[in-house]
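Quarterly update from the structural biology core.
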Amino acid sequence: MEKVFARPSCLKDKPFRYCPGCSHGVLHRIIAETIDRFGIRDRTIGIAPVGCAVFAYDYLDIDMVEVPHGRPPAVATGMKRSRPENIIFSYQGDGDLAAIGTAEIVHAAARGENITVLFVNNGNYGMTGGQMAPTTLLGQKTTTTPAGRDVRSAGNPIRVCEMLATLDGPVYIERVALDSPKNILAAKRAIQKAFRYQIEGRGFSLIEMLSLCPTDWGMAPVQAVDWVRDHMAPYFPLGVYKDQGSAGKAETD
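Predicted structure, tokenized:
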């Protein structure tokens, strides 16, 4: 019998401990499949900060580095400059990248560092109890905004892709979603392209993924899928925001 489905070699054979419906497990598999595809397992290093993202080291069978909250772009910069032959990616949530780490990501992008940033946007601080994050939608209820986010006191949600796309440094910025098979396949293509651009030395790439967090949203997983489609995607539109590296190159399957 022909085997048509298998666990990626750099994904550890152990069950995920994420909440039911969480998108991190899906993303871990995409990352593992991408690393296997390019044959870069021995030279890839992942960087994960505080938050649900930190569990990535439990599942990805590659070198992983834990860093303080918000600091992955700075650590990735130092690692890539000192070991340019390595493939360096950061795995960050919205509370990390778009709050305490805002300056780090903006300046790494502005410098055009040859790193890959994977940005998980689930609209809240997932690990610490579901508090409001910079990406929490207006009116969205969290543990720190029980009546819903109010623009008068908390301002507007930050659109990271749109902001970074105004800079000259990035080569590739795209926003995808992990809410359906079609969108998951699109996310896989985007992540593969971002890794390929780093392998080719093209510069800074960031892939933002709209991700489910049913537990902290207080929803069943099916409701969370609808929330991404009906509420998150209209405010955070999917699509390519910058791509300066695709001219003359075939797209990754």
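The domain at 24-243 is CATH 3.40.50.970 (Rossmann fold).
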